[in-house]
Amino acid sequence: MKMDQMQSENEIAEVVRGANGPLQVRGGGTRTVGRPVTGEVLDVSGLSGVTLYEPGALTIVAQAGTPVSEIEAALAAENQRLAFEPYDLSGMLGSSGASTIGGVVATNASGPRRIMAGAARDFALGVRFVDGAGRVIKNGGRVMKNVTGYDLVKLMCGSRGTLGVLTEVSLKVLPGVETTQTLVLPVADAAQAVAAMSRALGSPYEVSGAARVGGDVWLRLEGFGVSVSYRADALRALLSEFGSAQVQDVDWTTVRDAVPLHGADAVWRISVKPGDAPAVLAVASAGCDALLDWGGGLIWIGQSGGAPQDTHAALQACTAALGGHATLIKGAEDLRASVPVFQPEPRPVADLTAALRAQFDPRGILNPGLMAA
Amino acid sequence: MEMPTPNPDVMARKARVAARLRDVLPRDSVIDDPAQTRAYECDALTAYRCPPMLAVLPASTAEVSDVLRICNEEGVPVVPRGSGTSLAGGALPTADCVILGVARMNAVLETDYHNRFVRVQSGRTNLSVTGAVEGDGFFYAPDPSSQLACAIAGNIAMNSGGAHCLKYGVTTNNLMGVTLVQMDGTVVELGGAHLDAGGLDLLGVICGSEGQLGVVTEATLRILHKPEGARPVLMGFDSAEIAGACVADIIKAGLLPVAIEFMDRMLIEVCEDFAKADYPMCEALLIVEVEGSDAEIDAQLALIKEIALRHSPVALRESASADESARIWAGRKAAFSAIGRISDYMCLDGTIPVSELPYVLRRIGEMSKQYGLPVGNVFHAGDGNMHPLICYDANKPGDLELCEEFGAEVLKLCVEVGGCLTGEHGVGIEKRDLMSHQYEPADLDAQMGVKDVFDPNWLLNPAKVFPLASSEARRIAAE
User: Fold this and answer.
1) Which residue of chain A is at minimal alpha-carbon distance from B356?
2) Which of the four pLDDT bands, split at 50, 70 and 90, describes residue B18?
3) Spatial CB neighbours of B237, under 8 Å, sequence gap ≥ 6
4) A335 part of contact set with chain B, CB < 8 Å
């Protein structure tokens, strides 16, 4: 069931206060991730527009329903950008809407540059939201350094609408770069590829992307032209024992959006420490494809056919043992309804999570069960 | 600054609580002699002092868990303490509290260069984290001015920043995981050597929670390889307006220096006396530092100097040696102690949108005349985090109160222009009663609701962060 599109924060607060059943919070509708949720659709895409943009202060404030493309265009006009490189799942999930900035923050969606620059949660400076009781709450602000009170901005980042409905977000942005170069280094063995990426990321050369696509390691350098060519040479020398790296034109959205896995029936996104990547890859059965990002710390795994529920259980058991988490990003509705889509948490953490949910959404009406383990 | 009346029932149980704590800790880890508890009567906000009922110095997560469990059972408030360098009164005791100091927990537990993290006990000092890895070319980025003394535990509690956070971020951006002990003694692991949370980002809310949600005993910290080199350039201007315009132009040109620091004439003079860095004497000094290889630094500084020249600088000088760079930074980092040699002072920490800098500095100058108290300004210009230092005379009756009133007006101004009360020092007791200028009752209630979850009896550092009137009902209900 679908209500009219919300037009204001007040309207959302009224609807939440008056709700007598579950609500599905929706921005652009491009990220149908998580346990399937039933309930009325609360469409916030009508809250749209950049409220304030100060290039000299590196900050932008926008209503939660603002399309990411609109924000990126505004920033590009001033040669600035969202440095955490938010991914877009519409290609993978076959969704047709426009990804919104509220959705990006609500899912802490961060791409390859996360390894150097930080995640969406690191660039989120402030939020306004409507909690499950219909209260309008603000936290943080629009300045880069702010430790005034508890950081509920981080709590909202990645909470996927289960603690509150985001209405406005304020973000730190960074300057764009003059030059980008990618070194491509063929490395057949996954462990060796991770070792090569660790060597690069542990160097002073400010690698802003370290991925493994097929049998190639991609290492991205960004900055002023003179600096990038200097660092590319230095890096090539540093990595010579792994093979010969060449500068090539590549498209980093391939990595950001896990394009090689778009055709898979089930896709997982896994975070571990980079050195544990080979152990995770060993768990994925034959017939699975993989893509490594974040120097090996982020693993995308795709599977077509086979027994995805078994793969799911094996991956989450592996990340539970190693330290980390595995999330089923794409999967048939019956699969998502039958497995813990998000990594189950150990007891004391799960207790805190449940108690926080009850605190922010006492009636349990905001995306109920979406993140349930 | 008002503090809640100590609970006489709790104080009457002092001997019993001490005995129970001695059952679980080595004898010398429980301090009950008033001559010794006095050592914990204040932190770096020295205007306020109160000896605690007891102090404990546990040496492990298990001991911290025992202490908290016992205090929870006994209904005794606990004030966690790192190195006691808080400028906001974050570690100020109450007469009925147990101070829990983490200083004995200072070990490095794990160093992993391959995965670029280090795991340490939380009592370890900020600078000694870098000390443990710099031999191999690595460092821990957040660098508060007190980094020689301040503990990682306090850095996490206050989400501390530093001069170089324009490029590297503050504590929360470099903290990967913690071992947290809840007030009931439960030990929780949040985050770890991997990035980002699989569920709710509880680590993100722990960082900056001022010791009110739990006691952090261990931390996993991101380490980075040191840059090949770094070099500051000094630029002097005739006014703060011009310096501010220059900063905006540097940022808009796509340059992201690792630090952009501002000092006004008063600070230049006292810091020069202290560090002999040969600072140019002018109204507004910027220290702009860039990193990279020599050639990269040359190229960046050439662009930065070109921008500076457009703003008619009265001085423009690159550091010529590592020794000179060290002196330039020593002066800046000693700003607070340098002022302290000539006067009692209160250090503010508001953040403002950088575009408001000239207006706010002008208003502070006017208020300084109005209150008759001198003010020096030093701040992180790239991110708008200001540190006005208000001078007063602690021996002159009424001067501290006047200074506090002035400080409060400055912080309200920061909020008015779109900024906040505190950028990196924390709220503590100092800004507690100003919180209602930044947040509506519902905003504060949402934050206090988080404390209800982690510490339902409101025993951890209870009289901080929130205006006493806002938190009173919760504190009383929990008694």
Assistant:
1) A57
2) very high
3) B243, B246, B282, B283, B284, B285, B286, B311, B312, B313, B314
4) no
Predicted confidence (pLDDT) per residue in B145-199, tens digit: 899 999 999 999 999 998 888 899 999 999 999 999 999 999 999 999 999 999 9
Contacts of B202 in chain A (CB under 8 A): 155, 349, 352-353, 356
Query: Contact A150/B207, CB-based, under 8 Å?
Result: no
A298 in contact with chain B, both atoms CB, cutoff 8 A: yes
Task: Determine phi and psi for B41, rounding to 5 degrees.
Answer: -70, -20
How far, in Å, CA of A349 to CA of B190, rounded?
Answer: 8
Contact A324 B450 (CB under 8 A): no
Q: Residue B228: its chain A contacts at CB < 8 A? A: 204
- Tally A–B CB contacts below 8 A: 261
| Stretches in chain A below the pLDDT threshold 70 | 1-2, 373
Instruction: Read off the pTM.
Output: 0.97
Pick from A58, A275, A356: CB nearest B450: A356
User: Whole-angstrom Cα distance, residue B200 to residue A163?
Assistant: 10
Pick from A143, A151, A157: CB nearest B420 = A143
Segment 210-229 of chain A within 8 Å of chain B by CB: 224, 226-227
> Using an 8 Å Cβ cutoff, are A185 and A243 in contact?
yes
Per-residue pLDDT tens over the stretch B363-412: 999 999 999 999 999 988 888 999 999 999 999 999 999 999 999 999 99
Q: Do B439 and A138 touch (CB under 8 A)?
A: yes
Q: Taking CB atoms and an 8 Å limit, are B443 and A360 in contact across chains?
A: no
Beta-carbon separation of B423 and A143 below 8 A: yes
- Please choose, from the candidates A308, A234, A321, the residue with its C-alpha nearest in 3D space to the C-alpha of residue A280: A321
Q: What is the Cα B150 distance to its own chain's centre? A: 9
Q: Does A40 touch chain B (CB under 8 A)?
A: no
User: Residue A126 in contact with residue B418, Cβ under 8 Å?
Assistant: no
For A29, the token pair is 């509708």
Best interface-test mutation with A: which of B65, B133, B187, B196 has the largest number of A CBs within 10 A?
B196
Are residues B201 and A147 in contact, defined by beta-carbon separation less than 8 angstroms?
Answer: no
Closest CB from A149, A176, A359 relative to B452: A359
Across the interface, whether the CB atoms of B419 and A141 are under 8 A apart is answered: yes
Of A127, A164, A122, A130, nearest in space to A142 by CA: A127
At residue B24, the pLDDT reads: 97
CB within 8 Å: A352 and B188? yes
Question: Which of A130, A147, A151 best tests the B interface by mutation, with the highest count of B CBs <10 A?
Answer: A147
pLDDT tens digits along A203-254: 999 999 999 999 999 999 999 999 999 999 999 999 999 999 999 999 999 9
